[in-house]
Amino acid sequence: MKNNKSEETKDLQTLMDKVPDHLFIKCPVCEENFYNKKLGEYKLCPNCGYGFRLGAQERINLTVDEFTPIDSEISAPKRFLGDEKYAGKLEKSKKATDLNESVQTGFAKIGDTEFALGVMDSRFIMGSLGTATGEKLARLFEQATERNLPVVVFSCSGGARMQEGIHSLMQMAKVSQAVSDHAEKGLLYISVLTDPTTGGVTASYAMEGDINISEPHTLIGFAGRRVIEKTIQQRPPKDFQRAETLLKNGFLDAIVKRDQMKSVLAKLLAWN
Amino acid sequence: MVKAYDRVLAARSADKISIQDLVAGITDDFMELHGDRAYSDDPAVYAGIGTIAGQSVTITSIQKGNDTDENIERHFGSAEPSGYRKALRLMKQAEKFNRPIINLINTPGAYPGMDAEYKGQGYMIAQSIMQGLKLKVPYISVIVGEGGSGGALALAVGDTVWALEDSIYSVLSPEGYATILWKDSSKAAEAAEQMQLTPKELLDNEIIDKIIPEVKDAKSMQNFKEALIEKINELNKLPKEELLAQRHERYRKFN
């Protein structure tokens, strides 16, 4: 009997080994397994609507009609590259994303409406806020201010970039200043917080929009979950730091499903 | 040479002058003002109005406790969203009455609690930074002990940032840095060496503008007070546009 059972298990394992891994996908939010073709072009979980993480270019392709990048060559200042481990990480990220920093910036159009667009890429050292990330964003807001254009920024970030230390922290002030200058000219800034937006990015430009919107089940927070668990010695509930909770508590204007994002942005840009 | 981690320990030392003693020492008179006008009063943020050499100033600060009870109440010097809202409220009030702002900072970082997240810790820090940068009055910040991350930056976006001799200012604690980069919090001393968090390194990197000799007696207190008076007088003379232009340049140059 015992032998039979283990034979059976073995057969099942052999069969399972023949199913390629990427055919089925598990949603990290609702944990539902589904056939990968159901993900669709917007990469949405068919069960709960969670949007799987997108690279910056993918996001741009899905959201706007035209895009012209600026400052693409800007990357981490040379003074940080003495740290070999960090330099290696940067190289790896550059290859993986085809970007020189964790944000792509430029000018975009939806229909005839032109605006400045920044899109962060979580594959680039967790979308962390490096000095060059801050520089690209500051320039984006500055150019938009000069050209009287609205700004849309899709944030996704693990927060400040540890490897650049205090210089990373200063980017929060530098970008916030550019956001504020843009606002003083009466121009619109829409911040879209995408999964995940945390740490110093949440504590600066991601929470400085005239309109702050997000996607279903997006993780948004300041402190990391593990740090909080260690501090309060208890486990926060499942919906902790999720977009729905922030909406309920008054920190988001709306949650927009990814396949509606383009039309919602078009509307908001037109009304301002 | 003092090792970086010794500086970390000195910045955290229980012998460090308390924020309230510091405020009492630099002001001729001071009155604490409470409340965020939304839902709470965070005891980690000590703030109010006082006079220094006849000049009214608004002081906001983040303070640790002097004993266990105070430390629990003040989350060991970690402010909640309510604390940042109170500080911002009083800084805006300072702007209304054309009073210089002095911010004294001793915090390991903003409080990482569940309720703090529910009440918008990230949002309040962001607003303190964005609105703070634009306040049309002289704005001086002093890192007194620990200057921990965004929680410290929220009150340090003015015209000049100083640090006491035994202080640190960093993107996160050396323990946190070691955990994230090397998955080993016991390597904090090694992390401290790398992080450039000592006053001397901060000055070299133009993150701060001045190192203040540690305040530990009447003479060093007087020295600190005189430095403040001199800076306030200097900033008061600048036309508002010039004040804001210089401040703008201070933060724009971090590239």
TrEMBL record, chain A:
Catalytic activity: N(6)-carboxybiotinyl-L-lysyl-[protein] + acetyl-CoA = N(6)-biotinyl-L-lysyl-[protein] + malonyl-CoA
Cellular component, GO annotation: acetyl-CoA carboxylase complex
Cofactor note: Binds 1 zinc ion per subunit.
Pfam hit, one: Carboxyl_trans
Primary residence: cytoplasm
Biological processes annotated in GO: fatty acid biosynthetic process; malonyl-CoA biosynthetic process
All residue ranges annotated as the CoA carboxyltransferase N-terminal domain in the record: 23-272
UniProt enzyme class: transferase
Pathway this chain belongs to: Lipid metabolism; malonyl-CoA biosynthesis; malonyl-CoA from acetyl-CoA: step 1/1
Molecular function terms from GO: acetyl-CoA carboxylase activity; ATP binding; carboxyl- or carbamoyltransferase activity; zinc ion binding
Superkingdom of the source species: Bacteria
Keywords of this entry: ATP-binding, Cytoplasm, Fatty acid biosynthesis, Fatty acid metabolism, Lipid biosynthesis, Lipid metabolism, Metal-binding, Nucleotide-binding, Transferase, Zinc, Zinc-finger
Cofactor(s) recorded in Swiss-Prot or TrEMBL: Zn(2+)
List of residues binding Zn(2+): C27, C30, C45, C48
Record-linked InterPro entries: AcCoA_carboxyl_beta, Acetyl_CoA_COase_Trfase_b_su, ClpP/crotonase-like_dom_sf, COA_CT_N
Subcellular location: Cytoplasm
Enzyme Commission number(s) of this protein: 2.1.3.15
Function text: Component of the acetyl coenzyme A carboxylase (ACC) complex. Biotin carboxylase (BC) catalyzes the carboxylation of biotin on its carrier protein (BCCP) and then the CO(2) group is transferred by the transcarboxylase to acetyl-CoA to form malonyl-CoA.
Family: Belongs to the AccD/PCCB family.
Oligomer status and interactors: Acetyl-CoA carboxylase is a heterohexamer composed of biotin carboxyl carrier protein (AccB), biotin carboxylase (AccC) and two subunits each of ACCase subunit alpha (AccA) and ACCase subunit beta (AccD).
Name this protein carries in UniProt: Acetyl-coenzyme A carboxylase carboxyl transferase subunit beta
UniProt source species: Apilactobacillus kunkeei DSM 12361 = ATCC 700308
GN (gene name): accD
From TrEMBL, chain B:
SUPFAM superfamilies: ClpP/crotonase
Tagged with keyword Lipid biosynthesis: yes
Recorded GO CC terms: acetyl-CoA carboxylase complex
Gene3D superfamilies cross-referenced by the UniProt entry: 2-enoyl-CoA Hydratase, Chain A, domain 1 (3.90.226.10)
GO biological process, one term: fatty acid biosynthetic process
Pathway(s) this gene product operates in, as recorded in its UniProt entry: Lipid metabolism; malonyl-CoA biosynthesis; malonyl-CoA from acetyl-CoA: step 1/1
Membrane-spanning parts: none
One Pfam family hit: ACCA
Domain CoA carboxyltransferase C-terminal residue range list: 1-234
GO terms of molecular function: acetyl-CoA carboxylase activity; ATP binding; carboxyl- or carbamoyltransferase activity
UniProt EC number: 2.1.3.15
InterPro entries: Acetyl_CoA_COase_a_su, ClpP/crotonase-like_dom_sf, COA_CT_C
Reaction(s) catalysed by this chain's protein: N(6)-carboxybiotinyl-L-lysyl-[protein] + acetyl-CoA = N(6)-biotinyl-L-lysyl-[protein] + malonyl-CoA
PANTHER family: ACETYL-COENZYME A CARBOXYLASE CARBOXYL TRANSFERASE SUBUNIT ALPHA, ACETYL-COENZYME A CARBOXYLASE CARBOXYL TRANSFERASE SUBUNIT ALPHA, CHLOROPLASTIC
Stated name of the protein: acetyl-CoA carboxytransferase
Species this protein is from: Apilactobacillus kunkeei DSM 12361 = ATCC 700308
